[in-house]
Write a structure and sequence with these properties.
single chain, mainly alpha, two-stranded antiparallel ribbon, 6 helices, 2 strands
């Protein structure tokens, strides 16, 4: 009597599986597959499943991927005077951003002293570094010849001011320092000013977004020119001296364009921040 090669228990010859451990003892006989009849171009064929797949490969042509044509992005041309203004604002914008933050931090300290969170002596001590850096930045801006802010910046500052006033007004109401009637009158006044600023500001920011697209395209064009000049110089089509001259001109132009982009991005981000508030 045969035994199971796994568990060693005795089995019968006709057992397909060991009744003790379940080990397969015999392979089941494969049932013969019925031939499949298919018809190709009027002929009747009996093929295996492999042959059927081969026929399908012949009958089904490969599909080519369609290439979609994209329309070129329309770039708005920026007037030269506007470009000069954007470059001027770009040169001083980062410094002015730091100045705004310092002023805001200083105002926060003064508010904390007014509500009694810190003493007047603490205010004097903590605000000294702010006042010193603010003075230095203002002197730096004078030396740089800071240009006048654009209308959008003025509107944005107005919007930020009204939002800040509304917050402080709500704090006074919650503390019981003003009556509900006074709060409603003042909040209505600030809401009206805020609404007017928002409408004009949204239009100005949309224009800035168009300028930003134009300047980004201009930056890419400058980079392409730089690469082309380098290639021409390396293959001997452009003298090295002439290459260096053109290279400096393009670097200056690229730097000015990059400053303008940073300025526009900064204003747009400030606008988005006020929309969240």
């Amino acid at each position: 009597m045969p035994t199971c090669p796994r568990c060693g228990q005795r089995t019968e010859e006709w057992f397909i599986y060991c009744k003790y451990c379940g080990l397969p003892l015999k392979q089941e006989l494969e049932k013969p597959k019925k031939p499949v009849t298919i018809r190709v171009e009027g002929e009747e064929l009996e093929k295996s499943s492999l042959a059927i797949r081969e026929v399908r490969k012949v009958k089904e042509p490969k599909r080519e991927a369609k290439t979609e044509l994209k329309e070129p992005v329309k770039v708005e041309e920026i007037p030269e005077e506007t470009k000069r203004n954007l470059i001027g604002r770009g040169k001083t914008y980062l410094v002015e951003t730091r100045l705004r933050k310092l002023n805001k931090d200083y105002e926060t300290l003064k508010t904390r002293q007014i509500v009694g969170e810190i003493t007047e002596e603490e205010l004097e001590k903590r605000s000294e570094p702010f006042r010193q850096e603010i003075s230095e930045i203002k002197k730096s801006l004078e030396d740089m010849g800071a240009t006048e802010p654009l209308e959008v910046e003025v509107l944005l500052a107005e919007k930020e001011t009204q939002i800040e006033r509304k917050k402080k007004l709500e704090e006074l109401l919650l503390k019981g320092e003003i009556r509900e009637a006074i709060y409603q009158k003042l909040i209505s006044e600030y809401d009206t000013k805020l609404k007017d600023a928002k409408k004009k500001l949204a239009e100005g920011v949309r224009q800035m977004e168009k300028w930003l697209i134009s300047l980004e395209a201009e930056k890419q064009d400058i980079l392409d020119q730089q690469e082309m000049l380098m290639a021409k110089m390396k293959i001997g089509d452009l003298p090295v001296k002439e290459y260096e001259t053109h290279k400096k001109e393009l670097e200056t132009k690229l730097n000015e364009t990059d400053l303008s982009c940073q300025f526009l991005e900064g204003v747009i981000e400030r606008f988005k921040a006020t929309e969240v508030d």
